[in-house]
């Protein structure tokens, strides 16, 4: 009977119910989208890095795996690494931020092709002159580019000479030498990828290199995948924490306002229930059940909305953003929304339970 | 149907409301006995204390002083929880404005009173007789907004007596009804009293309505003026 009353109350005010559900849904969607974007983009970065086909990645001393830093690794190290036992190929790249989370990567295509097997061209061809750029399919779709289009990068006009399948290192690629000259880092690299004669030698080579170059961050590709995580990005966990805290506050305020209004609207009904012998607990139970239904249904809606936000990301920003669906976070986001909603319902419920029956019955 | 058993005993009942810095003496020493099966009409002008007496007898507010016994139970000794239990088991209310829950059907408005009283077993067969008497069986699946005022008040009466309370308290039950529906509702209250022995206390301004009771208690200035 209590559930019947609760459901009939929710059905009686469809707009209020829908808006409450939507607000909780957006709160949950906000959390899941943020976590999905964080994990998705990191995974995508790791996937593209491992797509190079290397066994070991080396960065310049004092730089971290995730951070964007200027090229500071001398090209001379390429020959140094090639002289090391078991190292068959070495590829140096230069990364330059172009705004937001986007970068342009400088490559020596011959070196890169030898290691990775080369880009798979969907349209166009490799570089033939300095002001040419290769983009991946996502980037081309997001920016409406085709072969022959002009692209502005680093305040210069570039001609798109090729569109390639995504998944190998970078979305926007220019010639390494050209990028080095443009960014004042001639002869410098951001990262060096090594391919070994046998991947089974990775640990041995890595240990040997770390001994010789103790200040250089070096990772095996297996390590790399695990290192591309939220906890390894400086400030990202805190950022997610702040968004979750904001979500709780939003959920709390929405439910507080919704339930406060509902309790005010139903003052007379609370008086009727009390006249029938309903205890304060009975009244609390009704309000909390109503809130629980809103929170649970709102969380489910939020999960569904996450698929919508992922679709929007894929359609409107497939190159800049990658959103992952994170089922592990569904119960966490749901629990957070539930807690926020219950917190929001607490005062209205307490107010309703403590209402004077006579005053409530005379409420107009 | 009176058998001499006292269901309500009120002695020197006083109630003071504190409104800001002012004390309002709503009841100034009321004495009243009601026997089981009696139908008592309480009349009096606004501010005479009728509603306050109604609220105290129904356990909606505690008395300030004096004694009130319902079935031998002293209301002054009852806690808030005790008064809640009293409303659940011993008292049924009928209000002027019907006070049905607008989101529930008539049947569910009646069922919720049983649910609150934790009477989830099979319905008392006597209640079917009551529904026949009230003539609302065919309207039970409608929501209050689809019912006429007279029908809503009949549903409210059904709700008030579904748990077999010792006392039915009716506060201006015909105050919102036209003459025809008023006569129907008053006739039903009399039938409930005569055929089922339901004890009824009814507050009314209307002398014709008051005449349905076995006796009329007149109140003025927080006291019983005469019977």
What's this entry about, in short?
The complex is a heterodimer of chains A (364) and B (227). With 364 residues, chain A is an alpha+beta fold. Helices cover 55% and strands 17% of the residues of chain A.
Pair with the most extensive interface? Answer: A-B, 23 and 27 residues
| Helix/strand structural class of chain B | alpha/beta
* Percent range of helical residues of chain B: 25-40%
How would you sum up the major sheet of chain A? 10 strands, mixed
Order of helices and strands of chain A: HHEEHEEHEEHEEEHEEHEHHHHHH
Number of strands of chain B: 10
Estimate what percentage of residues of chain A fall within beta strands. 15-25%
What does this structure look like?
The complex is a heterodimer of chains A (364) and B (227). Chain A is an alpha+beta fold. Chain A contains 13 helices and twelve strands. Chain A has helices spanning 2-12, 14-50, 76-82, 109-116, 137-142, 176-182, 202-212, 221-227, 236-265, 267-275, 280-316, 330-353, 357-361; strands at 56-59, 73-74, 87-99, 102-107, 121-124, 132-136, 150-153, 156-164, 172-175, 188-189, 191-196, 218-220. In chain A, strands 1, 3, 4, 5, 6, 7, 8, 9, 11 and 12 form a ten-stranded mixed sheet that branches. In chain A, strands 2-10 form a two-stranded antiparallel sheet. In chain A, strand 3 and strand 4 form a beta hairpin. In chain A, helix 2 (14-50) crosses helix 11 (280-316). The two termini of chain A are 26 Å apart. The mean pLDDT of chain A is 87. Chain B has 227 residues and is an alpha/beta fold. Chain B has helices at 50-57, 80-89, 106-116, 125-134, 149-161, 179-196, 207-210; strands at 6-19, 22-35, 39-43, 65-70, 73-74, 91-94, 167-171, 199-204, 215-220, 223-226. In chain B, the strands form two sheets. Chain B has a six-stranded mixed sheet. In chain B, strands 2-1-4-5 form a four-stranded antiparallel sheet, covered by helices on one side. In chain B, helix 4 (125-134) packs antiparallel against helix 5 and helix 5 packs parallel to helix 6 (179-196).
């Amino acid at each position: 009977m209590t559930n019947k009353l609760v459901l009939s109350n929710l059905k009686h005010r469809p707009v209020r119910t829908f808006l409450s559900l939507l607000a909780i849904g957006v709160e949950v969607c906000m959390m899941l989208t943020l976590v999905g974007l964080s994990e998705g983009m990191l995974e995508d970065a790791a996937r593209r890095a491992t797509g190079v086909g290397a066994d070991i990645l080396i960065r310049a001393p004092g730089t971290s795996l995730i951070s964007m830093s200027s090229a500071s690794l001398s090209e001379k190290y390429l020959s140094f690494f090639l002289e090391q036992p078991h190292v068959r190929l070495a590829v140096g790249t230069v990364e330059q931020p172009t705004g937001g989370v986007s970068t342009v990567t400088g490559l020596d295509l011959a070196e890169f092709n030898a290691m990775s097997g080369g880009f798979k061209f969907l349209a166009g061809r490799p570089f033939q002159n300095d002001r040419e750029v290769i983009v991946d399919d996502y980037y081309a779709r997001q920016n409406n580019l085709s072969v022959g289009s002009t692209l502005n990068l680093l305040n210069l006009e570039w001609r798109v000479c090729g569109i390639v399948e995504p998944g190998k290192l970078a979305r926007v690629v220019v010639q390494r030498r050209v990028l080095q000259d443009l960014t004042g880092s001639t002869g410098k690299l951001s990262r060096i990828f090594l391919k070994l004669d046998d991947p089974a030698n990775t640990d041995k080579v890595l240990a040997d290199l770390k001994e010789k170059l103790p200040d250089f961050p070096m990772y095996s590709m297996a390590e790399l995948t695990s290192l591309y995580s939220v906890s390894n990005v400086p400030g990202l966990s805190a950022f997610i924490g702040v968004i979750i805290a904001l979500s709780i506050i939003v959920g709390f305020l929405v439910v507080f306002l919704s339930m406060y209004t509902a309790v005010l609207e139903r003052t007379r009904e609370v008086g009727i229930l009390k006249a029938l012998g309903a205890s304060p607990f009975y009244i609390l139970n009704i309000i909390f059940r109503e809130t629980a239904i809103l929170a649970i249904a709102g969380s489910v809606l939020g999960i569904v909305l996450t698929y919508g936000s992922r679709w929007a990301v894929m359609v409107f920003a497939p190159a800049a953003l990658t959103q992952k669906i994170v089922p592990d976070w569904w119960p966490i986001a749901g629990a957070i929304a539930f807690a926020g909603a219950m917190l929001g319902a607490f005062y209205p419920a307490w107010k309703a339970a403590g209402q004077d029956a006579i005053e409530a019955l005379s409420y107009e | 149907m009176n058998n001499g058993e006292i269901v309500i005993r009120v002695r020197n009942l006083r109630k003071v409301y504190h409104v800001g810095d002012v004390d309002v003496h709503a009841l100034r020493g009321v004495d009243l006995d009601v026997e089981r099966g009696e139908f008592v009409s309480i009349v009096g002008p606004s501010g005479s204390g009728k509603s306050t007496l109604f609220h105290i007898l129904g356990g909606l507010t505690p008395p300030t002083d004096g004694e009130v016994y319902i079935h031998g139970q002293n209301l002054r000794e009852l806690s808030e929880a005790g008064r809640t239990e009293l409303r659940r088991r011993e008292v049924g209310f009928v209000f002027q404005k019907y006070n049905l829950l607008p989101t529930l059907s008539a049947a569910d408005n009646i069922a919720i009173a049983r649910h609150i009283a934790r009477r989830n077993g099979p319905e008392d067969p006597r209640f079917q007789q009551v529904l026949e008497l009230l003539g609302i069986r065919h309207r039970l699946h409608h929501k209050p907004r689809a019912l006429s005022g007279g029908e809503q008040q009949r549903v409210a009466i059904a709700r008030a007596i579904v748990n077999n309370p010792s006392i039915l308290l009716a506060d201006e039950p015909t105050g919102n009804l036209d003459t025809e529906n008023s006569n129907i509702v008053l006739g039903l209250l009399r039938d409930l009293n005569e055929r089922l022995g339901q004890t009824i206390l009814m507050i009314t301004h209307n002398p014709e309505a008051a005449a349905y009771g076995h006796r009329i208690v007149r109140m003025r200035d927080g006291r019983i003026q005469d019977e």
